[in-house]
Design brief:
By secondary structure, the chain is α+β, with helices and mostly antiparallel strands. It has one domain: Roll (Pdz3 Domain). It contains 3 helices and 6 strands, in the order βαβαββαββ. Strands 1, 2, 3, 4, 5 and 6 form a 6-stranded antiparallel β-sheet that branches. Strand 5 and strand 6 form a beta hairpin. The longest helix has 12 residues. 21% of the residues are buried.
């Protein structure tokens, strides 16, 4: 199973005040906020930081960790090594990274 080293939480489960703050800062109201990044993980190597927002995986919008898992399983059927693309909203900038696992 893929472990990229992030603890994620759906934005929609946050307090409405936090959702509004994220919307004003990043212009999004759904997705997954990065709560933690594991030391030495793939996510850390790629520069992911707590507070970043994952809004799509492999080009498909995600709002829950279940959706991320489903997309990962679907991609994993194509073989043991594959590319996972996460789109992150980082403060006011949008960062896209793609890595082979």
């Amino acid at each position: 199973r893929l472990h990229i080293g992030m603890k994620l939480s759906p934005i929609k489960f946050l307090d409405p005040i936090h959702v509004e703050r994220i919307f004003r800062k990043c212009n999004i109201d759904s997705g997954l906020i990065v709560k933690e990044v594991s030391h030495g993980s793939i996510a850390e190597e790629l520069g992911v930081r707590p507070g970043d927002v994952v809004d799509s995986v492999n080009g498909e919008c995600v709002a829950t960790t279940v959706e991320v898992g489903i997309l990962h399983m679907r991609k994993g059927r194509k073989g043991p090594r594959h590319t996972l693309s996460l789109r992150l909203n980082v403060s006011d900038d949008v960062e896209v990274f793609i890595s082979d696992f």
